[in-house]
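Human: Here is a favour to ask of a fellow structure person. Comparing notes only helps if you start from a blank page. Give me a protein, with the fold worked out from its sequence. Please set it down just below, with no commentary around it:

Assistant:
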Amino acid sequence: MSIPTRAAVVESGGAPFTLCDVELDEPGPHEAVVRMVATGLCHTDLGVASGGLPFPLPGVLGHEGAGVVESVGTAVTGVAPGDHVVLSFTSCGECRNCRGGHPAYCATWLPLNLIGGRRADGSGTISRDGTELGGHFFGQSSFAERALVDERGLVKVDPDVPLASIAPLGCGVQTGVGAVWNVLKPDTGSTVVVLGAGAVGLSAVMAAALTPATAIVAVDRVAERLSLARELGATHTVDAAGTDLGAALAEITGGRGADGVVETTGNVGVLRQGVDALAARGTLVVVGAPPFGTEVALDVNGLLGGKRVVGLTLGDAETQTFIPALVRLVKEGRLPLHRLISTYPFPDIDQAVRDMGAGKAIKPVLTF
């Protein structure tokens, strides 16, 4: 039998979120039904809702969920009813990258998470009045009071940690932290530059502050976010609105350049400046995602000093070990994620969208 719940549905590209009654399919063998307690709002959700990505609409989005397991499929072994869980992306578990500990690069990642709207077997997960809706977003579609979640996206977490305080770990936070810990891996005395001080960028700043890097530079156009970056561990800040970024970074690094750069803005002009600012053998991690097909021009000779430009999805994290570690850091106060979060009741989702777009909220979290 189907499972009734209430969800925020996007009817078409550019339309607002509309709360309405929907039905979840019965959980398959490797799925669970999760009662949502909180879910983060991410720029990826807004990009899909605007019609910028080919996800089937009307549909239910949401991919930073946190909640309590209500029921599980017959083959689920990792969680049980009553467990507290953070929801993250899904993956096939069988391809070379999944087996190698890199599920964010699953061979079927795009259709399973971002653009398919259905399970891998083509069946739907959400319907309304008997008509299928786009669902299975990141294997969860968590903008709903209950979510049907792939087992591989379920991460059991410490029940003593409030779920609203850790919902963003499933996407934005693990992306920023993973860019630093899993890709840059700063050496003692190195310089890390973070371009963009939104949720992902500030997560990267907090992560860098837990490494041997001695210079952590946050770059943004909003003074309040730069001030927050300082409080979260940045040793230097650059206001890109009134400063020559290249000159500022050259001064901070003594002309040597940055050992690592995390680019979160999705602006190819900023990406180019970040590559130019790299030291010899430095690495830039591309996190910000401009529209599909966007290209950037680079000085090829400038790359010959061993510079690397690396694309990144979801922090290249293995969620079952990575997310519990982040939860512990949050619990112990070493990853002050609460400084980024603004909470909104679920019915106020459109207000959260407006505040995020206006820069009033860094990481909105919807609560149920």
Observations:
- The mean pLDDT is 96.
- DSSP finds eleven helices and 18 strands in the chain.
- The longest strand covers residues 31-40.
